[in-house]
Automatic annotation (TrEMBL):
One of its GO terms (cellular component) is plasma membrane. InterPro entries: 7TM_GPCR_serpentine_rcpt_Str. The keyword Membrane applies. The keyword Transmembrane helix applies. This is CRE-STR-182 protein. It comes from Caenorhabditis remanei. One of its GO terms (biological process) is olfactory behavior. The chain crosses the membrane at residues 12-29, 41-60, 86-110, 130-152, 198-220, 253-277, 283-306. Pfam families: 7TM_GPCR_Str (PF10326). GO terms for molecular function: G protein-coupled olfactory receptor activity. Keywords: Membrane, Transmembrane, Transmembrane helix.
Length: 354
């Protein structure tokens, strides 16, 4: 029952995400305020990335397992469209989005702070510099993809280690699933558990990239809030309109950070780090459901908090006004038009009475 519910929620959430992020991308392209500067390209970058993640997630629909000293991502072969060899690549691609989104949100906060302090046309977010900022997330993405493909490959020992857990908790035969696994304490030839150097190296890699991204987010988030509380200073924020726009963008970004922090980053961080200390975590199955909700919820703050996008959606969904039957009643009392109409009515009445 839980498996069926998970599949339904995943498919529904990812389908909604595809629609919302497509709409958001269109609005960013066509309805963005000219004062946004380069920030609209960063927003579009995140929106298109969430769209790609949703499409890939709808194809893969991965599940998670955190057990004893290992963390695994797996897919049932019966529900996959591709061979196990291809699915291992697809699972590695979708896992790497964790760092892609974390680093891109960090870039968002760096830009927001400097836009508040130096103006939207800050030189280091223009031209070739903007390309360099865009390059950070793909580099981290490739880094973790290679970790998954080179370090987290399944083997006979890991398959046997997962067999009882899969059967007891999920009623699955481990031979009927495709998985990648971070196994921190592997069984050696003598039957004893020994630390895996490469797994711990990848765990350290995971820890560093996650902590750096979160530190940048929190530090520049506090800096942004500090700048937002200041009165508009000449030569920095030039108008009330810009101040209101910056406020909208900052609020949207805060919620865009809180949503993945609660439903994706912190749960995955716990699920991955605890096996390094051989601590068993039992809520992994539910985290895969919450992660599928992220791209669907991620587009909402921009759609709801940024006025240009919100008004456009409101006007699109608003019912068209029905035309008035008598134009006379739409005119204010006492207006010249009303007076003229009354005179005309009186004159016509006199002519008819003859």
């Amino acid at each position: 029952m839980i498996e069926l519910l998970k599949d339904i929620i995943q498919c529904l959430a990812l389908s909604i995400s595809i629609v919302l992020n497509s709409v958001l991308t269109y609005l960013i392209m066509t309805k963005s305020n000219s004062k946004m500067g380069s920030y609209k390209y960063i927003m579009m970058y995140l929106s298109l990335s969430a769209l790609c993640y949703s499409i890939l997630g709808l194809i893969v629909r991965p599940d998670l397992l955190s057990y004893s000293s290992c963390f695994a991502v797996y897919v049932k072969n019966s529900s996959s469209f591709f061979s196990p060899d291809v699915m291992i690549y697809l699972m590695s691609f979708i896992c790497a989005f964790y760092f892609f989104f974390a680093s891109l949100i960090a870039v968002h906060f760096v830009y927001r702070y400097n836009a508040l302090k130096n103006g939207a046309k800050w030189a280091y977010f223009q031209g070739k510099f903007l390309f360099c900022w865009f390059l950070i997330s793909p580099l981290l993405y490739v880094n973790w993809t290679l970790n998954c493909l080179l370090v987290f490959q399944p083997n006979k020992k890991s398959t046997e280690f997962l067999r009882n857990r899969m059967a007891a908790d999920f009623g699955l035969n481990v031979d009927d699933v495709t998985y990648i696994i971070a196994d921190f304490y592997q069984v050696d030839d003598s039957g004893k558990f020994a630390p895996s150097p490469w797994a711990f190296f990848s765990g350290f890699n995971f820890l560093v990239m996650t902590v750096v991204s979160l530190v940048v987010i929190f530090v520049f988030g506090i800096k942004c809030y500090y700048e937002m509380t200041h009165v508009i200073v000449p030569n920095r924020n030039h108008s009330i309109t810009q101040k209101l726009l910056q406020t909208q963008l900052f609020r949207a970004l805060v919620f865009q950070t809180l949503i993945p922090l609660i439903i994706m980053y912190l749960p995955l961080f716990v699920l991955f780090i605890f096996p390094m200390f051989n601590i068993n975590v039992g809520f992994a199955h539910y985290v895969s459901i919450s992660i599928s909700l992220y791209p669907a919820l991620d587009a909402l703050p921009n759609l709801l908090f940024i006025r240009d996008y919100r008004d456009c959606l409101y006007n699109f969904m608003k019912k068209p006004e029905t035309p008035k039957s008598f134009e006379l009643y739409s005119v204010r009392r006492g207006s010249t038009t009303t007076s003229s109409a009354r005179k005309s009515t009186v004159n016509l009445g006199r002519v008819d009475l003859g």
